[in-house]
Amino acid sequence: MTEFERYYQRIRRQQKRDTLLWSLLLVALYLAAGNVAEFNLLTVWQSLPHFFDYLREIMPVLHLPLLFADGKTSGSLAYWGYRLPIQLPLIWETLQLALAATLLAVALAAVLAFFAADNTRTPASLRLAIRAFVAFLRTMPELAWAVMFVMAFGIGAIPGFLALALHTVGSLTKLFYEAIESASDKPVRGLAACGATTLQRMRFAFWPQVKPIFLSYSFMRLEINFRSSTILGLVGAGGIGQELMTNIKLDRYDQVSITLLLILIVVSLLDTLSGQLRRRVVGETA
Amino acid sequence: MISVVPDITHLKAQHRELFAAQPRYLRRLGLLALAVLLYYLFFFSVYGIDVSRLLNGCQQLGRYFLRMFVWQDFANWPFGYYFSQVGITLGIVFAGTLTATLLALPLSFLAARNVMHSRATRPVAFLMRRLFDLLRGIDMAIWGLIFVRAVGMGPLAGVLAIILQDVGLLGKLYAEGHEAVERSPSRGLGAVGANSLQKHRFGIFTQSFPQFLALSLYQIESNTRSAAVLGFVGAGGVGLVYAENMRLWNWDVVMFLTLILVVVVMVMDVLSSRVRKRYISGKAVPLWQPAGRD
Hints:
The structure holds 2 protein chains of 2 kinds. By secondary structure, chain A is mainly α. Chain A folds into 2 domains: 56 residues; 205 residues, MetI-like fold (Orthogonal Bundle), CATH 1.10.3720.10. Chain A is built from 11 helices and no strands. The radius of gyration of chain B is 28 Å and the shape is extended. Chain B has 2 domains: 53 residues, no CATH class; 200 residues, MetI-like fold. By secondary structure, chain B is mainly alpha-helical. Helices cover 78% and strands 0% of the residues of chain B. Chain B has 12 helices and no strands. At the A-B interface, helix 1, helix 2, helix 4, helix 5 and helix 6 of A face helix 2, helix 3, helix 4, helix 5 and helix 6 of B.
């Protein structure tokens, strides 16, 4: 055996040992997690048929010849969608919730982020305080915020709006200050050398660099917020969630499927729309 | 002659275009602000609540926050119960995200347009994408609600909810990773006679692996944060403790749990950044030093 082969075998052995150890660790963790969460092949095998049964049950009953008959005939489209006059305003409300919360949160987070970034010469105590505060805001679950505001303000859309806005401030501020921290320092120093004030440095040195990133994160967040605003109704904080939960709990099977269908349609529309808007706005400024 | 103080009026007359940019920008900003303001007026006039309720609610909120910072009877809290619920949440997240990763990886190859490039297989990629959109479009808590109804209460419903949501999300992101790879290694492998499976494994996956790992690690972290909502709908984990204690007005416990979760998420952040560094930038292998040379 040549010297090179010995070297090669040694490295190979080492790598194999590493891989084996890490794989064993991962498998052990996976099994432990599965054990804690009552997740194993047996339970999955037993419960999947129930899930597929449920899916089969929520399929609407549609008869082809009766498809366009009036709402009284079982098997027509109108019969399937008899609650649409209730559901459509609710989904509109959900959309408004997401939009209003995102707008407010973007404005707040953009301001907070400048104070939380470590290259904008903010005092360290204020910076740490803001960081801890936004970490708290985003780690408290949205539904917990929603429950709290529903208890304080009563049932309605405003608690949902506040809950969503607070949670979004928490997560956007983090993304925003990380974007500011990765911005280049050169324009800032250049402006400082010309005698620019702090506000002018922020406006003309940082803002042009981070604006496209801010905008694209904001659009991403709008899509996420619409998805999470559909669940706020579970605790009475407005939107389609209440309707969906009642339908699921009362076993109004065909209404479950139409509510899910509505949500999916709006989500995909919003995704396409915000994707196009993002490309226009970001492409224009970048 | 060069004057020391720049003649602003002269400059303005000379560069009309440049000096017009700032007022134009301010005008557009003002219009945008006005539009947002009008939107909020509309929003609050439709969904708003009256002032007395608002004031009353703020008073209530103040009381809740005060109670959050006064931890009464701290020594007698059932810590074992709280920590076991946090443990169950971590178990749900880990089992769910890892299973979703294992399921989404093969499916993502079926959804990548540069893998499914022939005329016969292109519809497969399209269908996979629509399936991912469908799974992703419905929130985790709603999947949880459906699974609680279909398979009963407990952590299993939570795991299945995470799996369905994450197969959609990760599948889409992995597929984008596969599509962004350099094409030449695949062509080279094809030229030396690799079959298509080998081309995908060594030509595509070696390049998209760092992204795959980073996305999975990030998803574990982000699920830890969002899995708390699963408990609210009966799908197991720490959300149950939240819901119970909010009904009982134990705001101090709510605060305590949130702090614990902040710490857990921070620890996971550190761990995952270490794993990322270890496996994406890699460890230096000592190079072979030929002894007999020079």
